[in-house]
Amino acid sequence: MKYTIILCIFSLSIAIKDLFAAQGNDERSKRDQELYRELAQADRKFWNDLLERERKQKEERQRAEKPDLGPK
To answer: How many structural domains compose the chain?
Structure first.
């Protein structure tokens, strides 16, 4: 009987420890998801800015190549 109670307490303590570990993992997982979301937003912003700069440079080159047909 004494060993059964000790075994139950031991099992319960392990279950509680695992429960707290799982909660920590959930919080860590949420934090990781938020960091990945921020990283994805920064990545999209970087590529959008890069594409915008390339588009503007292309437009400037096209304007520079066109002859100026101003008033005569």
So the answer is: 1
